[in-house]
Amino acid sequence: MTIASNVKQCVSSLKGVEAGLSSLALRTQDDESKRILHETMLVVNEVRKDVQKRVGELEREEPQYKGF
Amino acid sequence: MPDWIEILLRSFFFLIVLFLITKVLGKKQLSQLSFFEYVTGITIGNVGAELATKVEGNIIHGVLSILVFAIAPFIAGLISLKSKTFRDLIEGKASVFIKDGKVMEDNLKKEKYTIDELLGLLRKKDVFDISEVEFALLEANGDFSVMLKKQNQPVTPKDLNLPVAAVKEPQTIIMDGLILDEPLSTIGLNRNWLHTELDKLGVILENVFLGQANSNGELTVDLFDDKLKVPSPQEKPLMLATLKKCQADLELFALGTESKEAKEMFSKNSEKLQKAIDNVAHILRN
């Protein structure tokens, strides 16, 4: 396993969490919890985007691991 | 008409009369008897029983008497809603038995309670040591209420400064294998969601004896077949674990990379994620 594939794995985990948080926020009845879940979802989204960018750079450095 | 038939008819008639009267007087008559309700309750019952068995008694007279005894507490209830003085007179006042941790002997004597009875009342409230009590009083309806000293009260999340997720009341949405649509829509969910959740658990609707959904949209089921094991909802703890794993991964990448830019980006994001985890952990923890 190279770093590139590890980072890719992390990106997909973050994606999964993002979707989970989003669906939980929609289903939760309490407004305060809803807000916190939504905010967390946004943070995870930002982090995911940053890491995604890094994946692009890594793919340029290690072209043999390109693809997703 | 033979006597026994008349007694049958009378009993039936008074059963209905008494039922209607208690229905009108409401739950208060059942749950907390004030002096007044205590007295009228006994009398109404007695008059009813007397007239049901005594063939020579006049039914109209009996019903009139019952009506008087039923209307009196009804009116008293209406007035006591308005007037505090009247309320104190009719329903009585609570008497303080323990104040600032000290037993009020005079009040005990006034209510004819012995020290043994006081200790018994305390024990019923799970208090065996009188030094634990800050305040205790005998309510007007005969109930005994105890306030413990702060250090003996159970710890609450507030005492521990613990953030907790708010929960609303859960709804029962499956009974005896049938879906209840009204509570389902109360909690903002629909049959589609329910079928998906049941599929996730791998159970069929007909096998579900009881199903409850909480305010986080998690489904808990009890099956007719008790040998089958149902997984408890794992979604939220799993999400928290994944979040933590991602955060740890980011830290690891930050350590592993040689590019200074990437190192900065990873450590910044891992901190960001850590903060988010701290914020959301109390909701995702079960």
From TrEMBL, chain A:
Pfam families per record: DUF1657
Top-level division of the source organism's lineage: Bacteria
Protein name per UniProt: DUF1657 domain-containing protein
Origin species: Peribacillus castrilensis
From TrEMBL, chain B:
Pfam family, one: DUF421
InterPro entries cross-referenced by the UniProt entry: DUF1657, DUF421, UPF0702_alpha/beta_dom_sf
Bilayer topology: Multi-pass membrane protein
Record GO cellular component, one term: plasma membrane
UniProt keyword annotations, A-Z: Cell membrane, Membrane, Transmembrane, Transmembrane helix
Stored PANTHER family: UPF0702 TRANSMEMBRANE PROTEIN YCAP (PTHR34582), UPF0702 TRANSMEMBRANE PROTEIN YDFS (PTHR34582:SF7)
Protein name: DUF421 domain-containing protein
Native source organism of the sequence: Peribacillus frigoritolerans
